[in-house]
Design goal:
The protein is α+β, with helices and mostly antiparallel strands and about 80 residues long. It has two helices and two strands, in the order H-E-E-H.
């Protein structure tokens, strides 16, 4: 069977298959939160069934967070346009 490669050049995930890249990212940010470096988080989530969610937790005030979210939105738009 041929391997499906995603637009990012990485193998496409199958339903409920863990993403090692995601796990490493979350572990790195969890370490930062435990050390007190990371103070707040705003996150959009994508689930195995195609549904999405969002969460805001901790100290997230200030225009810097809004700017960061806008950059994330722009990146998501670019990724979605490229997949069309």
């Amino acid at each position: 069977m041929a391997q499906v490669i995603g637009l990012n050049g990485k193998p496409a995930l199958q339903a409920k298959e863990p993403s090692q890249y995601l796990v490493e990212f979350l572990e790195e940010h969890l370490d930062r939160a435990r050390s007190g470096e990371l103070q707040g988080l705003a996150v959009a989530t994508h689930y195995h069934d195609g549904s999405a969610g969002w969460s805001v937790v901790g100290r997230v005030g200030g225009l810097g967070m809004i700017g960061a979210i806008e950059l994330c939105k722009a990146e998501l738009f670019d990724i979605n346009r490229a997949s069309e």
